[in-house]
Amino acid sequence: MPATTPLPDVPGLPAGVTLENGEGGLPVLRVETARATGEVYLHGGQVTGWTPAGHAPVIWTSPRARFEPDAAIRGGIPLCFPWFGPGREPEMRPAHGFARLADFTLLEAREDDGDVALTLRLTDEDAAGLPGTDVWPFPFELTCQVRFGSTLRVAVTTRNTSAHVRSYEEAQHAYLAVQDVRDVRITGLDGAPYLDKVGTPGPHTQRGELTFAGETDRIYGSTSDVTVHDPGLGRRLTVTKQGSASTIVWSPWSAKAAAMADLGEEHWTGMVCVEPANVLHDGIVLEPGASHTTTVTYAVERS
Ligand code: BG6
Known about the structure:
The protein is mainly beta and 303 residues long. 4% of the residues lie in helices and 43% in strands. It is built from 2 helices and 23 strands. The protein has helices spanning 124-127, 253-259, and strands at 17-21, 27-32, 36-41, 46-52, 79-80, 105-112, 115-123, 140-148, 152-160, 166-168, 170-172, 174-177, 185-187, 193-196, 204-205, 210-211, 216-221, 226-230, 235-242, 246-251, 271-278, 284-286, 291-302. A 9-stranded antiparallel β-sheet has the order 6-7-8-9-23-19-18-13-16. Strands 5, 11, 12, 14, 15, 17, 20 and 21 form an 8-stranded antiparallel β-sheet that branches. Strand 14 and strand 15 (204-205) form a beta hairpin. The chain is globular, with a radius of gyration of 18 Å. The protein starts with 16 loop residues before the first strand and ends with a strand. The model has no long low-confidence stretch (mean pLDDT 96). The structure holds 6-O-phosphono-beta-D-glucopyranose. Keywords: Isomerase. Belongs to the glucose-6-phosphate 1-epimerase family.
C-alpha cells in the first residue's frame, strides 16, 4: 500500500473539479463537466486523461504506469524540460529532463465559459534536489495552463528568471489513444525534414502521410499541425500548435514495449505519441526575464 501524499492547500475549486489522492496516493485534479472529463496529476504537472463528451478517451495512460514520487508516469502528456530524450550534452540525465519527476503547484482553478481552466507552476526551487538539477542548476519558472472542454488546450510558458541567457529543450510528450497504431495515418508532415532515431539517422524528408510498420522514433523539424486518422475509432484527432518548431512521433512497437515494465507487450498498439516540441537546433534561447509559450490544442471529430 503506497503512502498517501498529503493534499496541498489549494485555492477554491469550481464545480466539477476535485483534488483527490489518485493512483499511488499522488494528488490528482479530476474534472467532470458536461463537455468533458479530465485528469491532471500535480506530479509532473501531467495530464493523464481527457475524454470529450460523446467520444472515447483521447489521452492514453498506460495500465501499467507507475504512480510513484520518484518515477515518471507512463502516458498522458509528460512535460519534457529542460531537455528532450538524452539532451544535447552527454551528461544530461534523466531522460527528458527533470520536470516530469517534479511536483507542480496548483495556482488557480476556474470555470471559464463552460470549460475548466487550471494553472500549475514549477520553479527551480520546487525542483531542487531532483536528479538532473545539478546538470541544469538555473532559475526558471514553468507555468502550465490546462483547459478542459470540448477541446483540450495545454499551454506551457517558460520564463528565464536568471540573470543570464539560458537555452533549453522542451516537449509535450502526448500519448494519444488509437484503436490500433498499425492502422492509423498521420498527415501534416509531408515535406518536413526528420531525423530517424531507429534507422539511418538522416536527415530524411517525409513524403506523403506517415504510417506505421515497425518501431518509429522520428524528430521532425516542423511548425505544422498534424492529424491522426484513426479508422478503427472512426475519428480524426488534430494536434494544433503554436510556438513549436519540432514534432516527435514515437511508437515503441512490440519488442521495445515488452521490454518496458510500465508499458508491456499487450498495450502498445493502443497508443501513438505525437509530441509538439522545441529540440536540438530548435531549442529555445531566452534572455534574462524573457519567456516563451508553446500552446497545443487537441481536438477530435468523427470521420
Ligand atoms: C520519445 C523518444 O519521445 O520518448 C524515444 O523519442 C523514447 O526515444 C520515448 O524512447 C520514451 O522515453 P521514456 O524516457 O519515457 O522511456
